[in-house]
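User: My collaborator sent over this chain with a note saying "see what the structure looks like." That's all I know about it. Can you take a look?
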Amino acid sequence: MSLTQEQIKKIAENLSKIPANDWKLGTDMNNIIEYFELLSEVDTTWVEPTYNVTEKESILREDIEIPKIAGPNELLACSKQKVVWNQIAIPNIMK
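Assistant: Without extra context I'll predict from the sequence alone. Here is the result:
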C-alpha cells in the first residue's frame, strides 16, 4: 500500500509543520508504511504483548512522614542574618 500525492498532501495539511510539496516526505512515508506491512506478516501467535521492556517492578520507596524535630523559632535562631518579625532580614538589593 503506497500513499498517493493527494493523501500525502492531506496529511501534510493536517500536520502544519510538514511542507506539502516535499517529495522526500512521500518517499519516507511510503517506506514507513511498507515497513509496517512487513511487520504485519510476522507470526506473533505465541508472543505475549510487551507492556514493559525492562520487566522491573517500580523501585519507588514508600513515603514516610518524618516527625518535626525543629520549630520555626529554632530554625530562625540558626540564621546568621538578622531576624525581624519572625523573618530573616536581608540587605537591600534595590539600590
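A starting point for your reply to your collaborator: Helices lie at 5-14, 23-40, 72-77.
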